[in-house]
Amino acid sequence: MLDGSGTIQSTTLTLRKPTREDGEAIWQLIRACKPLDENSMYCNLVQCDHFADTCVIAETPEQGVVGWVSGHMVPSDPDTIFVWQVAVSPDARGMGLGGKMLSHLINREHTKHVTRMQTTITLDNDASWALFKRFTSRMGGELTHEPHFKRNDHFGGHHDTEHMVTIQLRETGVRKAA
Ligand SMILES: CC(C)(COP(=O)(O)OP(=O)(O)OC[C@H]1O[C@@H](n2cnc3c(N)ncnc32)[C@H](O)[C@@H]1OP(=O)(O)O)[C@@H](O)C(=O)NCCC(=O)NCCS
Q: Hey, what domains does the chain have and what are their CATH numbers?
């Protein structure tokens, strides 16, 4: 997709719903995208199988899977989509792919009614904060956050506190493109 000078070689980036056949490639991509938590391959297969409507795969003919977003509708709030993980292959970063996948995610038949996006981010993940702040300003929304899954209360000291980020989206129906 990128040559040494950062030029996009592929003209055919595809964003689509995952299928079971994508599970292993997603698992490999997540392993290459520190600091993401690695899940079991089985977890990724269930996401592809049961949550395909709220997950996004990005692929090119040359490189296969270069991007992934996993998400689900919040069971107690049908207007809110929760984004679990966003992963962009190291050599495809900085070209807006993360933002493109988030926009794609909320423009589907299944999701275009949502008024909120949520995700959790640790305070030290600069790239993730930048991605969601940029997405918020592009969509014309408002971003708030507060500690949610806490280091000692919930992770037993094994993981930094995850802040729940809530993006109140101003636009529903036809969304701004990426
Ligand atoms: C976070 C991640 C998905 C961003 O993907 P991406 O396609 O490179 O993001 P974009 O190109 O859409 O960039 C969005 C914004 O983030 C900024 N950004 C990207 N990487 C950054 C970094 N390391 N530090 C600070 N800002 C960064 C970009 O400059 C851009 O802002 P701008 O448009 O104002 O310039 C990617 O870096 C990644 O996979 N990281 C590892 C896994 C991870 O941490 N995932 C997020 C947690 S769920």
A: 14-168 (3.40.630.30)
How far apart CA 53 and CA 35 sit, in angstroms, is 25
**Phi, psi (deg, nearest 5) at residue 68:** -155, 135
Q: Decide: helix, strand or coil at residue 161.
A: coil
Ranges assigned E (strand) in 34-161? 56-60, 64-74, 77-88, 116-122, 142-149
Spatial distance between the Cα atoms of 64 and 61, rounded to a whole number of angstroms = 6
Q: Residue 73 forms beta bridges with which residues?
A: 81
Helical spans, DSSP H, in the chain: 23-31, 41-50, 97-105, 126-139
For the Cβ of 96 lying below 6 angstroms from any atom of ligand 1, the answer is: yes
Q: Which residue's C-alpha comes closest to atom 22 of ligand 1?
A: 127
Query: For ligand 1, is residue 33 a contact (CB within 6 Å)?
Result: yes
Beta strands 56-60; 142-149: pairing state: unpaired
pLDDT at residue number 170:
79
Q: Which residue, 112, 111, 89, is CA-closest to 34?
A: 89
User: Model confidence over 56-93: pLDDT tens digits?
Assistant: 999 999 899 999 999 999 999 999 999 999 999 999 99
pLDDT digits (tens, 9 = 90+) for 150-177: 999 999 999 999 999 999 997 654 565 5
